[in-house]
């Protein structure tokens, strides 16, 4: 494996760009100490590389093994421009590492006055105590401490010491991903520890388990007769779903091809699918702002998939197939793609499908336009928090959509711009539906 971390430390922009252009490479993977490429570039002060990584969706709040986020490293090494870039990308200005130190603790200790002021402008707390009870002002020299005290006061901070609270047990940290997730393609089935069956569907069984000390989801495909040809096709197709290079795509991290089973392996997502988040027993509240962010994530992921050369497996967009990462990023699950040897003609979740996808032969369908219709149903679902056509069985629903003109109804009170977008994306003429790259700027404006 190429040493991406060495190139980050060196600031080798050419090699970095070439590496990032390969879809199988995971920009959020960590080295042996959990340092992601963004950690290293922030530490070494490579501004252009930090910008490149942020534009491609690198996780700004990923932690290394010491719970440092990139902002800690940029502030500690005096890289003001990078500090500002990270803050603009919503870096957690009061994130604390294993010692309880925030980025401001380090900026104060090294007397980086301009960085201290930038951090305070973005809400850094001057009296946030670390594990030893020291605040950032305690780490600063007296003159700087007085200056920052007055600056924080003028910014409206309540100047009352905040005691350290250990929250590591809450599991809120977003770790850099283990590099093993993107290094291996073929996985030996004996190395998998599958301990909990989560679901059984027509396409197979879904299990939760462990592999290489990573939490995983394993999908055992339902194949009645596993022939040599099917096995060969599987080996050719699954690597095309190892798309690590986009933050809104959840790749297959590997697969097992045994004489009895075909198994697809995904990273475990604790929050589950978007469907479960919206309609599950947990009753998670998704406000309009978060709904727009989810829609934007889905649009970005689908736009990226449509920009790639056509992959053999077919992907049906719906909220069951969108997974929610621990930092509330929506990711298109490649583990839910259909392989060429699976039953392509059978539709199990028609509620999200365009009418022409239920009426025509696969060869006669504009799948990109169908994806846009499915996206509109997802937006409706995010807006209403309802399950589409919940009063019908899947068979009834598919028949009525295809033959009787059954369509979702946008309720009164739906945000005007979302309502308009749903209508545009569900144009009965597939050729008049927008492309995903046209929808992204609209959602991006709505997000602000």
Q: What's this model, at a glance?
A:
The chain has 448 residues and is α/β, with parallel strands linked by helices. Helix content is 39%, strand content 12%.
Characterise the protein shown here.
- Helices cover 39% and strands 12% of the residues.
- The strands form four sheets. The chain has a five-stranded antiparallel β-sheet with strand order 5-6-7-10-9. The chain has a three-stranded mixed β-sheet with strand order 8-12-11.
- The protein has 448 residues and is of the alpha/beta class.
Main sheet: strand order: 5-6-7-10-9
Category by helix and strand content: alpha/beta
User: Helical percent range?
Assistant: 25-40%
What characteristic shape results from the CA principal axes? globular
The CATH class assignment of the largest domain is Mainly Alpha
List the helices and strands and how they pair.
Blueprint: H1 4-10, H2 13-20, E1 29-30, H3 37-44, H4 47-55, E2 62-63, H5 70-76, H6 80-88, H7 103-109, H8 113-121, H9 136-139, H10 142-154, E3 174-175, E4 177-178, H11 180-183, E5 193-201, E6 204-211, E7 214-221, H12 228-237, E8 249-250, E9 252-257, E10 262-267, H13 274-279, H14 288-307, E11 322-324, E12 330-333, H15 355-359, H16 367-384, H17 394-403, H18 416-425, H19 436-447
Helix pairs in contact: 1-3, 3-4, 3-5, 4-6, 5-6, 5-7, 6-8, 7-8, 8-10, 14-16, 14-19, 16-18
